[in-house]
Specification:
Elements lengths: L6 H19 L6 H12 L4 E4 L6 H11 E2 L2 E5 L6 H5 E6 L4 E6 L6 E5 L6 H4 L3 H6 L1 E4 L2 E4 L5 E6 L12 H5 L3 E3 L6 H11 L12 E2 H12 L5 H15 L4 E3 L3 H17 L7 H12 L4 E2 L1 H5 L4 H11 L19 H4 L9
Parallel strand pairs: 1-9, 1-10, 2-11, 3-6, 6-9
Antiparallel strand pairs: 4-5, 7-8, 12-13
Length: 347
């Protein structure tokens, strides 16, 4: 049993996360919400999918996050001729030892950057399924555990661009969140010219946290308290996607688990040891939208999955601990409603 009632320890861990965030924001200009989401996914033991047009800093964001943490990093450039064994590894016969020796692939790292993941064939994409979900690789009947922490940061260009393969539903469902960086503002682009015009900011980027610091942060996130009302709210949001008339595929139970983990990480980054309904609300679009498939009629009406999630958020009542509904726009609920009881002990 581990207690997380010591606010000072939570503050120290939050300070470590702030150092990582500031380090990444020094490279990615004008996108603090994107940087915060990437750190949230890391602390929630998830994987991040960055989807946008070329040249907006997708790979730069992944590299900056990886270099800000002192841990093993591998980058995989996905191409049509990439083989599954290039990712997972292969067993090679050693003539001297007269036995097969396993040669680990690029997936054996703590942070794996998959660049342009939708340029590889579906067969190669599927090589990531086991490692992303079970954090292990099985080769020739033997399983090999991946290091901790483990995170896949994948980038992809929009599917309508040439030479791309759309990610299958099972692959998208294993990514905790999807984010689109978007074009920077004019001021941010001017600052980018000053900072990036001479040398790459990645050249001077130094680690501001160690791998064991991230493990401690992950442990703190696991101990964040989630009240019954908040858990039920997350379940209701996900269940609403399965019966929505504009969707032919709703979110899976894995999506509910990812949404709850991400909400706990957001609470920890905010210095709280308990989650609020607006932690769930703030992440619903990023966690749920990429898992949903609109119907043909919805596509004809140009209804996106993001719009459907926003509609569900507006329609789903926000419960409180006493069973009443409250509008979150009037202010944050108090700790008395969603916080842990005094002296509570949690795993």
């Amino acid at each position: 049993m581990t207690t997380y009632d010591d606010r000072a320890s939570l503050t120290d861990l939050t300070a470590t996360a702030d150092r990582v965030r500031r380090s990444v924001e020094g490279v990615i200009e004008g996108k603090p919400e994107v940087v915060r989401l990437s750190l949230t996914v890391l602390l929630a033991e998830g994987h991040l999918l960055i989807e946008d047009v070329p040249g907006v800093g997708k790979t730069m964001l992944a590299k900056a996050l990886a270099r800000s943490v002192d841990c093993s990093v591998r980058r995989i450039q996905f191409t049509p001729d990439l083989l599954p064994s290039d990712i997972t590894g292969v067993s090679i016969y050693d003539q001297q030892q007269r036995d097969f020796e396993f040669k680990p692939g690029a997936i054996f790292a703590q942070i794996v950057i998959g660049d342009e993941i939708n340029r590889a064939s579906p067969k190669t994409q599927s090589a990531l399924l086991e490692s992303m979900e079970e954090r292990q690789v099985t080769i020739d009947g033997s399983s090999y555990e991946l290091p901790s922490p483990f995170m896949v940061v994948a980038t992809q260009n929009p599917v309508e661009m040439e030479g791309t393969y759309p990610l299958p539903e099972a692959q998208r469902d294993r990514f905790m969140a999807r984010v689109s960086i978007g074009y920077p503002s004019a001021d941010a682009e001017l600052r980018m010219l000053d900072v990036h015009g001479g040398v790459s900011p990645l050249d001077d980027l130094q680690p501001v946290a160690h791998a064991h610091d991230i493990v401690k942060l992950i442990d703190a996130v696991r101990g964040v308290h989630v009240a019954e009302a908040v858990r039920r709210y997350a379940v209701e949001l996900v269940a609403a996607t399965r019966s929505h008339p504009d969707l032919r595929l709703g979110a899976s139970p894995r999506a509910t688990l990812h949404l709850l983990r991400a909400a706990k990480a957001t609470a920890a980054l905010s210095g709280r040891d308990y989650a609020l309904p607006d932690d769930v609300q703030s992440l619903a679009v990023q966690v749920l939208a990429h898992r949903l498939l609109p119907t043909a009629q919805a596509q004809l009406n140009r209804r996106t999955a993001e719009q459907v999630v926003l509609e569900i958020l507006q329609r789903t009542p926000v419960p409180t601990a006493d069973g009443k509904e409250i509008p979150l726009v009037t202010g944050r609920p108090s700790q008395a409603l969603y916080g842990p009881s005094p002296g509570a002990r949690r795993l």
